[in-house]
Amino acid sequence: ERGRLARLRHTPALTLDGQKIELLANIELPEDASAALLAGSVGVGLFRSEFLFMGRRGQLPGEEEQYLAYRKAVEGMQGLPVTIRTIDVGADKPLDDSRRDAAHLNPALGLRAIRWSLAEPQMFLTQLRAILRAAAHGKVRLLVPMLAHASEIRQTLSLIDFARAELDNRGVASGRVEVGAMIEIPAAALILPTFLKYFDFLSIGTNDLIQYTLAIDRADESVAHLYDPLHPAVLRLVADTIAAGTAAGKHVSVCGEMAGDVAFTRLLLGLGLRSFSMHPAQVLAVKQEVLRADTTRLAAWARQVVEAEDPSAVFTA
Ligand code: PEP
Ligand code: MG
């Protein structure tokens, strides 16, 4: 099976009805770019930058160290786009830094991701400058995790402008970036017009979207049986985000585990998704599903699945 899949590496990801599907890789370190390329992905849809920050006692990486790491990922992808997500620490990804990791009552609902970045603006500006500098070396998209409030969006965008102004004042080169938001909190999926007004693209984080929609801690084994990607509420939020983003002419991707699970490829295609980002090891298997799919036939079925009382029954029928 592996050998057969490997032959698909250079095959364009086209559906039977000729739809071009973008298959991207999720990476955690710059070195993973080679695995992303080998897997036949056409870019990085999610670079989880927090892995540069985790497990370091004391000092967090400074601007120069981060710039070199992001640049390495960008150059490693040889001209293909790299989506760098700003730091998403907290909850299931604790920083090894006792001062910031003081035991929180409920880390998944606490000071994580963009909330942490906005609470630590100097750290955030350092990261933003490093990303903007790396963007001078290739195609970079900047992705912001865990946004829910319009005020957070405006604060984030003004910090990006500020970081660029700081570089300009220092006479340091920076590159253009598209700026996008993760849709991974139900509140975000329910105010899509606000997100579409401010952002160039959206990326749906199904891991957290499922967790927060169903009130299931994604790391808690005792409720793992209730963590259901096919819950109608989850599917509706995913379907609405794809539809609204596409109607607004914005790029929409899914970068949660759902995108790399071949069981869901046809459903997501049927809902109109044209960009998937996943662990490099999944790219060829998902491509094989894409090559067998006819989106003109899948759309009506996908609608039925989303509207069902028990989607898993329709899904497997
Ligand atoms: C997600 O929440 O689906 C996601 C891609 O981000 P992470 O798994 O890093 O929280
Ligand atoms: Mg997430």
Automatic annotation (TrEMBL):
Substrates-to-products reaction catalysed: L-histidyl-[protein] + phosphoenolpyruvate = N(pros)-phospho-L-histidyl-[protein] + pyruvate
EC number of the protein: 2.7.3.9
Principal location class: cytoplasm
EC supergroup of this enzyme: transferase
Domain PEP-utilising enzyme C-terminal: 5-293
Alphabetic keyword roster: Coiled coil, Cytoplasm, Kinase, Magnesium, Metal-binding, Phosphotransferase system, Sugar transport, Transferase, Transport
Compartments, record wording: Cytoplasm
Gene Ontology molecular function, alphabetical: phosphoenolpyruvate-protein phosphotransferase activity
Cofactor(s) annotated in UniProt: Mg(2+)
Origin superkingdom: Bacteria
Protein function: General (non sugar-specific) component of the phosphoenolpyruvate-dependent sugar phosphotransferase system (sugar PTS). This major carbohydrate active-transport system catalyzes the phosphorylation of incoming sugar substrates concomitantly with their translocation across the cell membrane. Enzyme I transfers the phosphoryl group from phosphoenolpyruvate (PEP) to the phosphoryl carrier protein (HPr).
Family, similarity comment: Belongs to the PEP-utilizing enzyme family.
The protein's name: Phosphoenolpyruvate-protein phosphotransferase
Species classification: Bacteria, Pseudomonadati, Pseudomonadota, Betaproteobacteria, Burkholderiales
